[in-house]
Amino acid sequence: MEIKHIGLDISTSIIGVSYLDNKGNLIDLQSINLKKEKCLFDKSKSTLNYFQNIVINSKFNKDVIIYIEEPFQSFSKGFSSAKTISQLNKFNGIVSYIVYDIFNVKPLYINVNTARKNLQIKIDKKLKNSKEQVFNWVKERENFVWPEKIISKGVNKGLVKYDESCYDMSDAYVISKAGLLIYNGQNQQEA
Fold it and tell me: Could you tell me which residues come within 8 angstroms of residue 13 by beta carbon, excluding any fewer than 6 positions away?
């Protein structure tokens, strides 16, 4: 299967990656775990290595389209500090350039709220975790084997639960599916 659409949910700890075919069907969901990397340069190098390897080992449509979740542009009560937002915006720019350089296509940026609205994802604001709600929405629609982990310590020792990367992969999926709807599958090289 040829990959036509790539969706990215970029953070400095885990990058969610979604791969869709030319009809918008899911090919794969992956994540790039950057938690062990200490600085943006190491995180960037790991991200570059990931995409260099994926290009070698996967088949891409010559007109691949890349959608990236737009980074935060303002502060919200109870969320990230100025330093965190600054780091995230720097890293978003670095990853944007990496995918631009590798695929020779300018990424398209999509606001997370616009993406959810286009896909008619209803977030219950009374519940705290919107990422959990998005993950459940994606799980209901896609037959995918989600990564799990076994808790090794504490009262929940032995309990199997979904890996935290599932949230990032779900967000990337939402960005790629919404991008497909918003841009109608057209390659926006000059966007």
Answer: 33, 34, 35
Task: Yes or no: say if 70 and 95 are a contact pair by the CB < 8 Å rule.
Answer: no
Q: Give the count of domains, the chain.
A: 1
Mean pLDDT value of segment 176-183: 93
What pLDDT is recorded for position 156? 87
Interatomic CA distance for residues 127 and 170, integer angstroms:
18
- At residue 79 the predicted structure's pLDDT band, cuts being 50, 70 and 90, is low
Q: Is 154 helix (H, G, I), strand (E, B) or coil?
A: coil
Range of the domain at 123: 3-182
Q: Is 187 a member of any domain?
A: no
Q: How confident is the model at residue 58 (pLDDT cuts 50, 70, 90)?
A: very high
Closest to 95 (Cα-Cα) out of 122, 69, 58:
69
Go through the chain and tell me how many residues it has. 191
Two structure tokens written together for 9: 């949910």
148 phi, psi to nearest 5 deg = -125, 165
- Whether the per-residue pLDDT at 73 is higher than 90: the answer is no
Q: Is 190 part of a structural domain of the chain?
A: no
The answer to whether residue 79 is domain-embedded is yes
User: In this structure, is residue 57 part of a structural domain?
Assistant: yes
Query: CATH number, domain at 89?
Result: 3.30.420.10
